[in-house]
Each structure stands twice: as C-alpha cells, then as structure tokens.
C-alpha cells in the first residue's frame, strides 16, 4: 500500500466529478468519489493523513441521489471515510449521525480493525452515540488499478456435467498440512503439494468460504471467540487480510492462488454473503457504513421500521432497491474481472429474489442473467432464508444451480437410519426431477451434497447421535438438532473395531450415492479422509483444531475409495450428458424384476440400477448380506466398498451396507 503524504503547499479542494463509477476511482491527476444516499442532506468526504489529521470536503454535486466530487492531487493509499448528514429519527429508521465515520460500501481496501468486546467499546460505534469516533474507526483506502501479472491465465470453464465441487475454508484446509510453507493462507492454496492433492482426488472446483473482509459479532467478541467461517461481511470488495501470509499483499496473494489453480485446470468459486451486513440489529446498534448512509434504502424494514431479520443475523439487505442492485452487480463483476473468479455460491440466496416476496424473475436475477461478464460464470444458490416463504428449492432461474438439501436428507435417511425408502433414494440418485425438471432445467442445476460446512462432517455423521457444541459458549443450544445421524453403538471416538467398520461402510455408501448420482456433486473438504470436528456441528466460531482439517489422522482407505469413485464417475458417460435418465436407466429388485409395486416395500432395502445397459449398481442398505440375481450379460465388479462379496455369473452375494458397481463385459 502506498502511503499518503499530504501536500503542505496546497489545501485540498473538491470540484465537479462524475457520478459513476461508484466508490473511489483513481484518475491521472486525482480521485473521483461517488456515494449513493437518497435521504442525505449533505455528505462530507473525510481525508486522513498518516498522522490521523482529518480534512473534510463536502461532495458538491448530486445526481439522482449520487453524491460525488473530484479531488485533485490524491494518490493510491489515501485513507478516507464519509460523514453523512440528515434527519435522526430512529423510530422512522433514520440514523444519520455525522459524528460517526462511515466506510465506503465500494472500498477496495480497509485500513484498521474494529474491537468491541464490551459495552464501552461498542458505544463508540453505535448510531446513538454523539462522540466523534474518527480516531478509532477504520478508514477506506483508495487503491490503484491492479498490475498483477496474470500471465496466460484463462478461465478453465469446466462444463457443468463434469464439475465436482470441493467446499473448503482457506485457513482450515491447509493449516495443519505437515511441512507446508505458509500453511493456512492464500499462498498455501497455490502450493504444488496442495494442488497435486486436489488433482489426484479428482475435484474440478474449489468453493472457498467467504474471503471478503468480515467482522466478529458482538457476542463472539464478548466471549473471546471469532467468526471463523466469515459469514459476517464488513467490506464486500475487500480481501480478508488475516488469511494472507503477507496481509498487506492479501489481494495479490489471492490472485496468485487463483492463477495457480487455473493452471491446474481447477476453478475457484467464492461463497459470498449478500443477505446481510456486519452492522447487526438495532440492539447492538453498530453504525459502520450502510446504516448511516441510507438505512431505509439498504435494509428491509417492517411497518414499525424494525429490521426484517430474514437472514437471522439482525438485518437483511434490500437488494431490489436499484442502487443496491447496482452495488451487488458491480461487486460480482469486480471479483470476476480483478480476481478471475469462476463462480459464486450465494449464502441465504432467497434474499436475492425478495421484493419482498420471492420473485423467481426479480430485478436482481434479471440483471445477472443479462450481464455479459457474469452470464458465463457459475452461480449457485443456497435456496432458503428464514423469512416468510423462505424455502425455494427448485425455484431459482437460470443460470443458477441450487444446493439440494432434499438429496442430503433422503440419502442420510436411507443409509444412516435405514429408512428403506427406495423411491426417495431413486429420485435423488436420478437427479431430483421432482424438484428441477421444469422450465427447461437440467440435472446439473441440483448441487448434491451429504455434508457442508454447516452441520456434521461425514465422520461425525456416523459417529454421533447428538451435537456437541459446548465449546461455542451457547450451552449447546446452537446448531441443527435434526441431523439424521447415528453413532453405530457408541458416541464419538471408539476403539471398537466392529463399530469402526460399520461407520466406514456407511460413509462409503453415502459417498457412493453422492458421486454416482445425476447432478453436480459437492464434497466437504476432509470428508474424503474422515475428518472430525468432535461432534461440533456449528463450528462457525472455532478457529482452532476443532475445524482445521486433521491431516495427521487421515483414513487412507477412505481417501483411496473417493479417488476411485471420482475416477469411476468420469468413466460413466451418462453422468456427463446432463440428461434426465428416463428409459436409459432400469430399476430392478434384487431378484432382477422391474420395480413396480416393490417401491412401497420399505423392508427390502435393496435394488439394482442398470445404466445404459453398461453399468450396474447393486444397492444394499441392510446391515446384513444380500443376494442379487443379475440381468443378462457378463458382469465384472468394477468397484466394491469391501471385499465381502461373492460373484458367479448371474448371481452376486454382497456384504452389508454399500453400493457395488459392476461393468458389463463386451
């Protein structure tokens, strides 16, 4: 970052600039500033030198609620903020307070950190405090256009049908890898050892939990904890510096990681949070940026001007407001153009379509669909929030794919709790046509997963009956209670060989279902080798060995099995055609009969699935052996979850719990 040296021979003055682009834009001879506020009476640009001395300049022009001006002589590295004047009527949702320095929602960099672990510290940042907080408030920073050498970088543009997503946390993925330089940072993502591991595993895209600058919520700071996941964004255009080996070079370090992953043919998706901001609710009262700039424009409010808390975090962004829509679109383009990001996963994405009810073809969705920069990027929705009508699985428009929690729950019920629901299993394996087969949608738009960052890891799913979140400081009240898990006879860790074997069988069955299903698979990092969080199913505030992947305790057998599954997936042509299965797949009983009334038999728990008369899946969800009578042809076992099977021409007896994959000899 370039330091700002004030010119002693001249006072800064502000002149007419441009209302767009928004934010602080470096020109040849100065900086243009533009800020949206439809209710502000006056906006002051506040410039700070290296000694903290402040110079205030009123933005002179307003055009359609954009306050703007140009300051000659400023350079990259200039620190700044805004003081916004207007009516103060909290009962009407108006919080203007020029005593509080506000960050630019478009800031590409922020200088300073915020601490508010007690009421005294918090008061300095509250909307109702009348003390000037410029001395402690973080400052937005003017940045120069990137000169990063992308070399011959190209978007890998992996076709959706070939995409395998690996959900990971920048720090947690690599922090404990033995002998890794800069472990736990963006730089580690570019390490040849890490990239080789991802390639050998067989994934095609890394989906990173939020890398935008975030803050730790007030209750976490009070309890001495931090927001490890990062779903509390403070500055949406800024790179989180704590994940960098060299924090002042965080942006280019992330670019290096993207460039290295692209060179290996791996895409990079960002998990991004546009449903709320770090300002929290009125009881906490943080006024950091949007609340003090134009609260009613930025946030959804109820009739009594309280916040519509559809995000569960205290506030919800009003993304249908045209200037907020533009802010989000500018932000997405920024990450694509400046960081070569391949796609985005949107947290609580129903908020994106709220107007305030969910609109499948709402303003923001239309804007994304029509944007030439974003049209070819992959978009993934978490298709729910906690507001009215907040469950919208299957209702997002192109180009969005969606997390399919029905796949997660039905597969867990089938394998972990032996539901015996063959119909539900088949529907999910075939691509969830009941959810996605409409309006021209295709199977790949369903993101299949068994586990994600939110909930049990795969190992914990088969090792715990109950969540164990005591370390989170909320008396184990937080996190999901309905996990569809089973400990197989003993809670948590065990030395019982029989229980460990049962857990491995169940894990392999779930992984087989994930990678052999029609649709796009997503694997939680560490699930391939049995990573555990000791029963914590809500590790959002655990930045420690609870959530960092334990590379020392890898289950080599399970990891090898996942590699083989992904190699097998690449060999099955039907899984790469993005087609509904229809007549190309036959569903048969264990006896080889076509499934008809047998779908209702919850006690059978076994079936055969014939794909293109070439691949045969023997599905046994019982905890006992099963005899299968194979269809006509010469079959060879291609991949088995265990050696416990006997095959002689037309018959095959398999061991308990798993999917045996056979290939037809020609």
Brief overview, please?
This protein is of the alpha/beta class and 666 residues long.
The pLDDT mean sits at 96
| Overall 3D shape | elongated
Query: Largest sheet, if any?
Result: 8 strands, parallel, barrel
Number of helices: 15
Kindly report how far apart the N and C termini lie: 64 Å
Number of strands: 30
What structural class do the secondary elements suggest?
A: alpha/beta
Q: What share of residues is helical?
A: 10-25%
Strand arrangement across the biggest beta sheet: 13-14-17-18-19-20-21-22
- The percent range for strand residues is 15-25%
Low-confidence stretches: 1-9
Radius of gyration: 27 Å
Q: Could you walk me through the main structural features you see in this protein, from its secondary elements to its overall organization?
A:
By secondary structure, the chain is α/β, with parallel strands linked by helices. The strands form seven sheets. The protein has an eight-stranded parallel β-barrel. Strands 1, 2, 3, 6 and 7 form a five-stranded antiparallel sheet that branches. Strands 5-4-8-12-11 form a five-stranded antiparallel sheet, with no helix packed on it. A hairpin with a 3-residue loop joins strand 24 and strand 25. It is elongated and about 90 Å long.
Features:
eight-stranded parallel barrel, elongated, 666 residues, five-stranded antiparallel β-sheet, 15 helices, alpha/beta
